[in-house]
Every structure is written in structure tokens, then in C-alpha cells.
């Protein structure tokens, strides 16, 4: 399944990504140490000891069997013993002394006067040459696919692995989309956020932050291929121990202690990343320093309904693997016009607005009717946002109506019944005002286009900033689909004038 999507702005990715150097022995050892828990190490040791016991037993059986004994109804130890006996490893070094010529027919190496007479040499025919040329063409095409052109759009999809997709020449009608490379991560990914903070020096960078079922947030360099470790890890587990039936976990200082469900990068303060977690906390990180600056616990731990949205998120995963979560912070979003202002939404049926400059302030709170699935600020005004809910509703609120003294019970600016089931993701078109496949003009929502993508249940949608009428869609089938919304006649008639990329 695809649980999250992030568009990468055009022109920021290196045209030819760098191939990562293979890890050193020390790095491999460190990776094993940090990846395996104490329990895992104990299991590996037990497995090795069990294998050693089996081999020792088999050798003893082989010694007892001797020669010329046929064993019927053998068990696995007897099988091993017979195999060892047949190999006759004690006399292996003596084979050269017995007149046997290795790698020959036993009568000496044959000599052929010319290569044409040698049946073991393959002569190069025209067909062989054509096949060789085809292989060269394939190699050339593979190398060409690795090059990212200035007109290409790059999309990162969070699946069982993070995939980096390239959408070629998005200004033309003939768009080609393919997987550029994959990033292998240790846990199921739930959220992503692109950031250009120069974590490796220079003025900018090209990085993706990934939140997963683990409490750590990993940041990967998208310009490096086959990297085995992230360049930055925020929080995470230091140590796991198992004593009998009890497990104890030690976390890094200021780490989340549960799954990271939402991430938001601050475009104005480029070293700042916000995270939302199932531990019911919102954290603000300095990614350059690699530490948490602020931890906020303004959402309650009391859920008002049964867990449903989380099942949607992990529907393609064995649900027995995860403990039931009754409350968590699901989404965070920075205001595009006031970058110190942060929204967060939770399963406690509230949306909270906080100012990062005064984290001790209780903030402003709105009540909603169901679990919060996602949040989005209106990019065309600084005072409006929408929240999508588990009951299929999308509500719009105006922050100017909020009150600090109590939970705001004021009605929403508008409410639309968008879907029959949970609205798992919302995204604004950054170019044309009031368009999100729903026209929100005058706070009177009207549906202007709809689509049933071949992605299964839709978990994530995102409009491109470079090509604002391209909508990336990901869902339970693990397939990425890009919808050119201007191909819809109704949208094209109304909003083609906002298309910056039209010929």
C-alpha cells in the first residue's frame, strides 16, 4: 500500500544521483548493533548453538556408522551423517594423488589446432552480435533512466519500501512514469515530508523525512542511491531487553515513544520539522542539531469513538502485529503565511492551533464530530483551514473566530459530506484558488470532478506545486497514479487560465 506521498520540486534533485559507498566493517557492526535488540541477539545465539549441536551430533553418527551401512527411515541427523560420509572430507586432499585429472575427461587436455575446430569455443554469429547490441542499448537506456532532467517531476511514495518515482516531461501530454530507485527502511512507513535544509552543507539539500511504526524519524538523502543508513535519525530506541515475559524499552532523550503518524516541514524556518505521534504528543525538531526543541501535550488521551481510522492506515498489514491505539495525534500542518503557527488534529475529536513562539500558551481549540484524519491550510488565505474526518466529512474553520478561554463550539465555515467513508487525505491546488476537485467559492462547496483510481482504497493525495493540476494518488493496492485534472472538461473550462504550464 501507499500511505504517504511527497512531491519533490523541480530542479532540486541532482541530475545524476550519487552511488553510496559500501559500508565499512565498523559501520556494518554498528548497524547490526543498533538494529538488533537484545532479544534478537539472544535468538541468533540460540540458533547458532542449536546448529552447532546438530552438526556435532551428525558427526558422531557418521563416526558410528562407518562404511557400507545403509540406513532406512533416516531422520535429519542421519541424512547429515550420510552426506558427510559421502564427501569423505578426511581424504579430500588426497584426490590429486590418485591420478584423477580435475576439470578434464580423465584422458588429458585435448588440443585443437584452430579455434574453429574447438567445439567448446562459442563463435560470434550475426545473431550473437545483434543480441550484444541489444544488451548495450538496454544498458544505455538504464543509464538514461537514472538521469533526472530539469523538466522531470520526482515523487516519493511511502510503501513497504520508500520508492522514488520520476515523472518525465510533465509539460507534455505524453508522460512517462517509472521507479527511479528505492530506499529500504526498517519499519512500515506512515508519513513523509520533503525538506531542503542543507544537512550536508551548501545552501540547499534534497531530503525526505519518514515517520513509521517505530518512534524514530529517519531523514534520507534523495540524491544518494543504495544508502544503508539515514543521514539523520530523530529520537528512537536505545535498547530493548526481555526478562521473562516482560519487555523493557529505553528511548533516546525527547524521543517519541510510539508510531510517528504525521510530519510537516516548515518552509520558512528550514531546519524545523513538526511531528505527530500515537504517543499523543506533538514535537518540534531542529533537524540540523538533531534534537527536539519543544514537546506539546495539548491533546487528551480520551478517545470518544472506537478505533477505525488506524485500521484504514494499516489495512494491508497484519493488524495483529500492532497494539490497539485508542487515541493519538494524527496530523500536523504549518500555516503557509504565518510559519510560526501550527495545527494539530487528534482522535480526541479536536483540532488545536499553537504558536511555536509561545508553546506554554494553551492555544486555540475546535471540536469536531469524529476522529481527525488530515489537515490542510488554505494556501490562498492565512486564516482558513480544512479538516477531514473519519465519518466522511470535511469541515472548514476560520481561525479569527477562535477563543482562547474555552473549546470553541462555533460552527464551521462550511461542511461537506465528501465521502461515505473516512476522508483520509486532503490537498489544495496551489495555483487556482477555491479548487480541490470541490469548488469552494463563496463557501458553497460543489463537486466539479470525481475519479475512481486503480489504487484501491485511497490513503494519500497530493497536488504538485510545479504543475498544480497534477494530482498524485496512492492507496491500498500499492500503485501510484497521477491524474491530470485539466483533462476533465469541467475543470479545463473553468480553470485553464490558472495553468502556468500550458503551451
Question: Explain this structure to me?
Answer:
The chain is α+β, with helices and mostly antiparallel strands and 503 residues long. The protein has a domain at 1-22 and 156-297: YVTN repeat-like/Quinoprotein amine dehydrogenase (Methylamine Dehydrogenase, Chain H, 7 Propeller), CATH 2.130.10. The chain is 17% helix and 30% strand. The strands form 9 sheets. The chain has a 4-stranded antiparallel sheet, with no helix packed on it. A hairpin with a 6-residue loop joins strand 13 (260-265) and strand 14 (272-277). Helix 2 (38-65) packs across helix 3 (76-87).
Number of strands: 29
Individual helix count: 6
The helix content, as a percent range, equals: 10-25%
What do we call the CATH homologous superfamily of the domain at 1-22 and 156-297?
A: YVTN repeat-like/Quinoprotein amine dehydrogenase
Helices and strands: which structural class? alpha+beta
Write the layout of secondary structure elements.
Blueprint: E1 4-8, E2 18-19, H1 25-35, H2 38-65, H3 76-87, H4 126-146, E3 153-158, E4 162-168, E5 176-183, E6 189-195, E7 207-212, E8 217-221, E9 224-225, E10 232-234, E11 237-243, E12 246-251, E13 260-265, E14 272-277, E15 282-286, E16 291-296, H5 309-313, E17 329-334, E18 341-346, E19 350-355, E20 364-367, E21 372-377, E22 384-389, E23 393-398, E24 414-417, E25 438-439, E26 446-447, E27 458-463, E28 470-475, E29 480-484, H6 489-495
Parallel strand pairs: 2-9
Antiparallel strand pairs: 1-3, 3-4, 4-5, 6-7, 7-8, 8-10, 11-12, 13-14, 14-15, 15-16, 17-18, 18-19, 19-20, 21-22, 22-23, 23-24, 25-26, 27-28, 28-29
Amino acid at each position: 500500500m501507499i500511505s504517504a506521498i511527497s512531491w519533490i520540486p523541480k530542479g532540486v534533485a541532482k541530475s545524476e544521483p550519487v552511488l553510496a559507498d559500501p559500508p565499512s566493517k565498523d559501520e556494518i557492526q554498528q548497524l547490526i548493533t543498533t538494529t538488533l535488540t537484545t532479544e534478537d541477539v539472544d535468538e541468533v545465539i540460540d540458533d547458532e548453538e542449536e546448529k552447532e549441536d546438530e552438526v556435532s551430533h551428525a558427526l558422531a553418527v557418521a563416526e558410528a556408522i562407518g562404511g557400507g551401512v545403509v540406513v532406512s527411515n533416516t531422520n535429519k541427523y542421519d541424512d547429515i551423517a550420510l552426506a558427510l560420509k559421502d564427501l569423505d572430507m578426511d581424504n579430500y586432499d588426497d584426490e590429486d594423488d590418485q591420478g584423477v585429472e580435475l576439470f578434464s575427461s580423465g584422458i588429458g587436455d585435448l588440443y585443437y589446432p584452430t579455434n574453429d575446430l574447438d567445439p567448446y569455443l562459442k563463435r560470434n554469429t550475426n545473431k550473437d552480435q545483434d543480441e550484444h547490441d541489444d544488451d548495450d542499448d538496454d544498458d544505455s537506456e538504464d543509464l538514461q533512466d537514472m538521469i533526472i532532467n530539469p523538466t522531470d517531476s520526482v515523487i516519493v511514495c511511502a510503501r513497504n519500501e520508500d520508492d522514488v518515482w520520476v515523472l518525465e516531461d510533465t509539460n507534455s501530454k505524453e508522460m512517462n512514469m517509472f521507479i527511479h530507485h528505492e530506499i529500504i527502511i526498517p519499519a512500515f512507513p506512515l508519513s513523509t515530508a520533503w525538506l531542503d535544509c542543507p544537512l550536508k552543507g551548501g545552501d540547499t539539500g534534497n531530503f525526505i523525512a519518514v515517520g513509521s511504526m517505530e518512534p524514530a524519524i529517519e531523514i534520507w538523502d534523495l540524491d544518494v542511491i543504495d544508502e544503508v543508513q539515514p543521514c539523520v535519525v530523530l529520537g528512537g530506541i536505545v535498547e530493548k531487553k526481555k526478562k521473562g515475559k516482560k519487555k523493557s524499552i529505553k528511548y533516546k532523550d525527547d524521543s517519541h515513544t510510539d508510531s510517528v503518524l504525521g510530519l510537516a516541514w516548515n518552509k520558512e524556518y528550514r531546519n524545523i520539522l513538526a511531528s505527530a505521534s500515537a504517543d499523543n504528543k506533538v514535537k518540534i525538531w531542529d533537524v540540523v542539531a538533531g534534537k527536539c526543541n519543544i514537546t506539546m501535550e495539548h491533546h487528551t488521551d480520551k478517545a470518544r469513538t472506537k478505533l477505525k481510522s488506524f485500521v484504514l492506515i494499516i489495512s494491508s498489514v497484519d493488524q495483529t502485529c500492532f497494539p490497539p491505539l485508542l487515541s493519538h495525534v494524527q496530523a500536523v500542518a504549518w500555516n503557509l503565511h504565518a510559519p510560526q503557527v501550527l495545527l494539530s488534529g487528534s482522535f480526541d475529536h479536536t483540532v488545536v492551533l499553537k504558536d511555536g513562539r509561545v508553546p506554554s500558551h494553551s492555544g486555540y481549540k475546535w471540536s469536531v464530530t469524529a476522529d481527525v484524519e488530515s489537515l490542510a491550510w488554505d494556501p490562498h488565505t492565512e486564516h482558513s483551514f480544512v479538516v477531514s474526518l473519519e465519518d466522511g466529512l470535511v469541515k472548514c474553520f476560520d481561525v479569527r473566530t477562535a477563543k482562547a478561554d474555552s473549546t470553541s463550539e462555533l460552527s464551521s465555515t462550511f461542511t461537506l459530506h465528501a465521502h461515505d467513508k473516512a476522508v483520509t487525505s486532503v490537498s489544495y491546488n496551489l495555483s487556482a484558488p477555491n479548487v480541490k476537485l470541490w469548488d469552494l467559492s463563496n463557501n458553497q462547496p460543489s463537486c466539479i470532478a470525481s475519479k475512481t483510481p486503480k489504487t484501491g482504497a485511497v490513503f494519500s493525495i497530493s497536488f504538485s506545486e510545479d504543475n498544480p493540476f497534477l494530482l498524485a494518488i496512492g492507496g491500498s493496492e500499492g500503485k501510484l497514479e497521477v491524474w491530470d485534472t485539466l483533462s476533465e472538461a469541467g475543470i479545463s473550462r473553468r480553470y485553464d487560465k490558472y495553468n502556468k504550464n500550458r503551451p
